[in-house]
């Protein structure tokens, strides 16, 4: 049981540290505070821009209304802009500004450095085992998330 407690403590600590470091690094890189939620919205936009607001909301698991409020803040910070679709004027797409693109790249670089610092110290077999273990953890999170969504929708 001691190993399980140590793993739990480690995961809680790592998750908290990643969030704190991301927020601080982004704030330092942008000169303004950016929440972890805003960072992940920027990430989803940058991965697929221009992208519909509804797609981003669905991908991060929030309502369109919640994303709209968050995007208002990102627009005010000069990180995101809204653009109406030329094909269907009812559709609103969101895109990164130059400042938003810089934030996206900064965040992406942080993750690449984080993973490289780990993978560079492991053998290919250890990397594969870690990936398999983390997949199991991800499956657990998906199951828990689905259960919670089922409780709130059912």
UniProtKB/TrEMBL annotation:
Pfam families per the record?
Answer: MarR
What residues does the HTH marR-type domain cover?
A: 1-139
Q: Which UniProt keywords apply?
A: DNA-binding, Transcription, Transcription regulation
Q: Does the keyword Zinc apply?
A: no
Q: What domain of life does the native source organism fall in?
A: Bacteria
Q: Which molecular function term from Gene Ontology is one that the record holds?
A: DNA binding
Locate the coiled-coil region(s) and give their ranges. Answer: none
UniProt-listed PANTHER family: TRANSCRIPTIONAL REGULATOR, MARR (PTHR42756), TRANSCRIPTIONAL REPRESSOR OF EMRAB OPERON (PTHR42756:SF1)
- Name of the protein in its database record: MarR family transcriptional regulator
């Amino acid at each position: 049981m001691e190993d399980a407690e140590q793993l739990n403590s480690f995961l809680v600590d790592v998750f908290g540290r990643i969030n704190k470091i991301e927020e601080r690094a982004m704030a330092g890189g942008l000169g303004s505070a950016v929440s972890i939620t805003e960072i992940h919205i920027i990430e989803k936009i940058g991965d697929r821009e221009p992208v519909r607001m509804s797609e981003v909301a669905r991908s991060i698991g929030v309502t369109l209304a919640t994303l709209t409020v968050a995007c208002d803040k990102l627009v005010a910070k000069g990180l995101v802009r809204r653009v109406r679709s030329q094909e269907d004027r009812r559709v609103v797409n969101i895109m990164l500004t130059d400042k938003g693109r810089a934030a996206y790249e900064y965040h992406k670089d942080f993750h690449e450095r984080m993973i490289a610092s780990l993978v560079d110290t492991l053998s290919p077999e250890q990397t594969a085992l870690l990936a398999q273990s983390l997949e199991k953890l991800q499956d657990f999170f998906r199951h828990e998330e689905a259960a919670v969504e089922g409780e709130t929708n059912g």
